[in-house]
Write a structure and sequence with these properties.
The complex is a heterodimer of chains A (about 100) and B (about 100).
Chain A lengths: L2 E7 L2 E7 L5 H12 L6 E5 L4 E2 L16 E6 L22
Parallel strand pairs in A: 1-5
Antiparallel strand pairs in A: 1-2, 3-4, 3-5
Chain B lengths: L10 E5 L5 E5 H4 L3 H8 L5 H5 L1 E3 L5 H18 L13 H11 L2
Parallel strand pairs in B: 1-3
Antiparallel strand pairs in B: 1-2
The chains are: A alpha+beta (about 100), B alpha+beta (about 100).
Family (chain B): Belongs to the SKP1 family.
Protein name (chain B): Elongin-C
Organism (chain B): Dioscorea cayennensis subsp. rotundata (White Guinea yam)
Protein backbone atom coordinates (compact mmCIF):
# COMPACT_ATOMS: atom_id res chain seq x y z
CA UNK A 1 0.00 0.00 0.00
CA UNK A 2 1.52 3.29 -1.08
CA UNK A 3 -0.53 5.66 1.02
CA UNK A 4 -3.97 6.47 2.34
CA UNK A 5 -6.05 9.59 2.78
CA UNK A 6 -8.84 10.35 5.24
CA UNK A 7 -11.99 11.54 3.52
CA UNK A 8 -14.40 13.19 5.96
CA UNK A 9 -18.01 14.28 5.82
CA UNK A 10 -20.16 14.94 8.88
CA UNK A 11 -19.52 12.11 11.36
CA UNK A 12 -18.00 9.69 8.86
CA UNK A 13 -14.36 9.18 7.90
CA UNK A 14 -13.38 6.97 4.96
CA UNK A 15 -9.80 5.70 4.93
CA UNK A 16 -9.00 5.36 1.22
CA UNK A 17 -5.93 3.51 -0.02
CA UNK A 18 -4.38 5.22 -2.99
CA UNK A 19 -1.23 6.08 -4.89
CA UNK A 20 0.29 9.56 -5.41
CA UNK A 21 -0.03 9.03 -9.19
CA UNK A 22 -3.80 8.49 -9.01
CA UNK A 23 -6.05 11.30 -10.15
CA UNK A 24 -8.79 12.95 -8.11
CA UNK A 25 -11.31 11.22 -10.40
CA UNK A 26 -9.90 7.81 -9.35
CA UNK A 27 -10.56 8.68 -5.70
CA UNK A 28 -14.12 9.74 -6.57
CA UNK A 29 -14.66 6.37 -8.25
CA UNK A 30 -13.68 4.63 -5.03
CA UNK A 31 -15.97 6.91 -3.03
CA UNK A 32 -18.85 6.21 -5.37
CA UNK A 33 -18.72 2.56 -4.34
CA UNK A 34 -18.91 3.54 -0.67
CA UNK A 35 -21.33 6.46 -0.68
CA UNK A 36 -23.58 5.60 -3.65
CA UNK A 37 -23.09 9.18 -4.88
CA UNK A 38 -22.00 9.49 -8.53
CA UNK A 39 -18.57 11.02 -9.11
CA UNK A 40 -19.98 14.19 -10.72
CA UNK A 41 -21.93 14.93 -7.55
CA UNK A 42 -18.84 14.77 -5.37
CA UNK A 43 -16.42 17.51 -4.49
CA UNK A 44 -13.17 16.95 -2.61
CA UNK A 45 -11.39 19.73 -0.73
CA UNK A 46 -7.93 19.41 0.81
CA UNK A 47 -8.55 20.62 4.36
CA UNK A 48 -5.03 21.91 5.14
CA UNK A 49 -5.03 24.36 2.20
CA UNK A 50 -8.79 24.63 1.59
CA UNK A 51 -8.19 23.90 -2.11
CA UNK A 52 -10.75 22.08 -4.22
CA UNK A 53 -9.18 19.06 -5.93
CA UNK A 54 -9.33 18.98 -9.72
CA UNK A 55 -10.50 15.73 -11.36
CA UNK A 56 -7.80 15.61 -14.02
CA UNK A 57 -4.85 16.23 -11.68
CA UNK A 58 -2.98 13.62 -9.67
CA UNK A 59 -2.81 13.60 -5.89
CA UNK A 60 0.93 14.33 -5.99
CA UNK A 61 0.38 17.40 -8.19
CA UNK A 62 -2.08 18.77 -5.66
CA UNK A 63 0.14 18.05 -2.64
CA UNK A 64 -2.21 15.42 -1.21
CA UNK A 65 0.09 13.31 0.93
CA UNK A 66 -0.13 10.21 3.08
CA UNK A 67 -2.64 10.63 5.96
CA UNK A 68 -4.01 13.88 4.45
CA UNK A 69 -7.52 14.96 5.47
CA UNK A 70 -9.87 15.66 2.56
CA UNK A 71 -13.41 16.97 2.97
CA UNK A 72 -16.17 15.39 0.90
CA UNK A 73 -19.21 17.41 -0.11
CA UNK A 74 -22.15 16.52 -2.32
CA UNK A 75 -24.00 18.51 -4.96
CA UNK A 76 -27.43 19.53 -3.72
CA UNK A 77 -30.65 19.51 -5.72
CA UNK A 78 -30.28 23.20 -6.62
CA UNK A 79 -26.91 22.34 -8.23
CA UNK A 80 -24.79 24.06 -5.58
CA UNK A 81 -22.43 22.08 -3.43
CA UNK A 82 -23.08 21.87 0.28
CA UNK A 83 -20.70 23.59 2.68
CA UNK A 84 -17.79 21.60 4.08
CA UNK A 85 -19.11 19.95 7.21
CA UNK A 86 -16.85 17.84 9.39
CA UNK A 87 -18.33 17.12 12.80
CA UNK A 88 -16.12 17.40 15.87
CA UNK A 89 -16.41 14.84 18.67
CA UNK A 90 -16.37 17.63 21.30
CA UNK A 91 -19.85 18.60 20.13
CA UNK A 92 -21.29 15.21 20.98
CA UNK A 93 -21.44 13.69 24.41
CA UNK A 94 -20.44 10.11 24.76
CA UNK A 95 -22.98 7.55 25.91
CA UNK A 96 -20.62 5.88 28.34
CA UNK B 1 -2.15 -3.06 -9.26
CA UNK B 2 -4.91 -5.21 -7.82
CA UNK B 3 -8.39 -4.72 -9.16
CA UNK B 4 -10.92 -2.48 -7.41
CA UNK B 5 -10.02 -2.72 -3.74
CA UNK B 6 -12.60 -0.32 -2.40
CA UNK B 7 -15.65 -2.52 -2.60
CA UNK B 8 -18.08 -2.31 0.25
CA UNK B 9 -17.61 -5.94 1.20
CA UNK B 10 -13.93 -5.35 1.79
CA UNK B 11 -14.50 -2.42 4.10
CA UNK B 12 -15.64 -2.42 7.72
CA UNK B 13 -17.17 0.34 9.77
CA UNK B 14 -15.90 1.09 13.27
CA UNK B 15 -18.13 3.29 15.44
CA UNK B 16 -16.87 5.36 18.37
CA UNK B 17 -18.47 6.29 21.69
CA UNK B 18 -19.84 9.53 20.20
CA UNK B 19 -21.25 7.72 17.16
CA UNK B 20 -18.56 8.75 14.68
CA UNK B 21 -17.96 6.23 11.90
CA UNK B 22 -14.64 5.14 10.45
CA UNK B 23 -14.83 3.13 7.24
CA UNK B 24 -11.58 1.24 6.79
CA UNK B 25 -10.24 -1.71 4.81
CA UNK B 26 -10.93 -5.05 6.41
CA UNK B 27 -7.28 -5.86 5.90
CA UNK B 28 -6.35 -2.85 8.05
CA UNK B 29 -8.93 -3.60 10.75
CA UNK B 30 -7.56 -7.12 11.07
CA UNK B 31 -4.29 -5.73 12.40
CA UNK B 32 -6.33 -5.91 15.61
CA UNK B 33 -6.61 -9.49 16.81
CA UNK B 34 -9.86 -8.67 18.61
CA UNK B 35 -11.51 -7.30 15.46
CA UNK B 36 -10.06 -10.16 13.40
CA UNK B 37 -11.76 -12.63 15.74
CA UNK B 38 -15.06 -10.78 15.49
CA UNK B 39 -14.96 -10.69 11.70
CA UNK B 40 -13.72 -14.21 11.04
CA UNK B 41 -14.97 -16.44 13.85
CA UNK B 42 -17.66 -18.95 12.95
CA UNK B 43 -19.57 -18.12 16.14
CA UNK B 44 -21.98 -15.90 14.26
CA UNK B 45 -21.08 -12.51 15.67
CA UNK B 46 -23.57 -10.04 14.17
CA UNK B 47 -20.45 -7.98 13.40
CA UNK B 48 -19.43 -10.58 10.83
CA UNK B 49 -22.54 -10.14 8.71
CA UNK B 50 -22.86 -6.39 8.94
CA UNK B 51 -19.18 -5.55 8.75
CA UNK B 52 -19.75 -3.05 11.52
CA UNK B 53 -18.32 -2.90 15.03
CA UNK B 54 -19.35 -0.44 17.75
CA UNK B 55 -16.93 0.55 20.50
CA UNK B 56 -18.99 2.40 23.13
CA UNK B 57 -15.91 2.80 25.32
CA UNK B 58 -13.48 4.19 22.77
CA UNK B 59 -13.66 7.92 22.09
CA UNK B 60 -13.60 9.27 18.54
CA UNK B 61 -10.15 10.78 18.85
CA UNK B 62 -8.62 7.53 20.09
CA UNK B 63 -10.46 5.38 17.55
CA UNK B 64 -9.19 7.54 14.68
CA UNK B 65 -5.66 7.23 16.02
CA UNK B 66 -6.12 3.47 16.19
CA UNK B 67 -7.25 3.40 12.54
CA UNK B 68 -4.22 5.48 11.54
CA UNK B 69 -2.09 2.99 13.43
CA UNK B 70 -3.63 0.08 11.45
CA UNK B 71 -2.61 1.70 8.16
CA UNK B 72 0.79 2.70 9.49
CA UNK B 73 1.27 -0.90 10.53
CA UNK B 74 0.46 -2.16 7.01
CA UNK B 75 2.84 0.37 5.49
CA UNK B 76 5.55 -0.58 7.97
CA UNK B 77 5.08 -4.26 7.17
CA UNK B 78 5.52 -3.52 3.48
CA UNK B 79 8.86 -1.85 4.16
CA UNK B 80 7.96 1.82 4.51
CA UNK B 81 9.57 2.64 7.82
CA UNK B 82 8.23 5.92 9.17
CA UNK B 83 7.61 7.01 12.72
CA UNK B 84 4.17 6.81 14.29
CA UNK B 85 3.59 9.99 16.23
CA UNK B 86 1.59 9.81 19.46
CA UNK B 87 0.61 12.96 21.34
CA UNK B 88 1.65 12.57 25.01
CA UNK B 89 -1.79 13.54 26.32
CA UNK B 90 -3.52 10.61 24.64
CA UNK B 91 -0.91 7.96 25.44
CA UNK B 92 -2.73 6.33 28.34
CA UNK B 93 -6.13 6.13 26.60
CA UNK B 94 -4.46 4.85 23.45
CA UNK B 95 -2.61 2.14 25.36
CA UNK B 96 -5.84 1.00 27.03
CA UNK B 97 -7.62 0.80 23.70
CA UNK B 98 -4.68 -1.01 22.10
CA UNK B 99 -4.67 -3.49 24.96
CA UNK B 100 -8.38 -4.17 24.48
CA UNK B 101 -8.00 -4.52 20.72
CA UNK B 102 -4.85 -6.64 20.92
CA UNK B 103 -2.90 -4.58 18.45
Amino acid sequence: MAMYIRVKREKTTYFIQCDPTEKTSDIKQKLQALTDQPTDKQRLTLVSSNEILVDSKTLAEQKVENDAVVALTFRKDDDDFEEVNIARPEDFTSFS
Amino acid sequence: MEEETTKKAEMVKLISAEGFEFVIDKQAAMVSQTIRNMLTSPGGFSETQQGQVTFPEISTHILEKICQYFYWSLQFASGKETEFHIEPEITLDLMMAANYLHC
